[in-house]
Fold this sequence. Notes:
Low-confidence stretches: 1-13
Order of helices and strands: EEHEEEEH
Strand content: 35-45%
Distance between the termini: 18 Å
Largest sheet: 6 strands, mixed
Mean pLDDT: 85
Number of strands: 6
Number of helices: 2
Shape: globular
Amino acid sequence: AGGDxxxxxxxxxxxxxxxxxxxxxxxxxxxxxxxxxxxxDILDKLAKGDGYGEVLRAKGIVTPVEGEWFHFDLVxxxxxxxxxxxxxxxxxxxxxxxLNEDKIKELFHV
Length: 110
């Protein structure tokens, strides 16, 4: 998990931490459609920890079940969820320490 953004297909390539030796990043493209309630629950779980690792930042753009796309940005103590312009596919990036990638994949349905 070097975070170079090139090790697996579909990685969210803009998800590259500045301190490779301390932090790791996990990124994915997804076509999964989220409800607002589901996405709020996911972000709440990431913010609280719940075995996902020490999440320092999560950001993304994901497809909604209906309406404009969701854009989210999470840092410790603050989460922003808004509606905005569409992209060609959903993208999610999580940066932190000791990330439990399998649990994060399960959380985001990928």
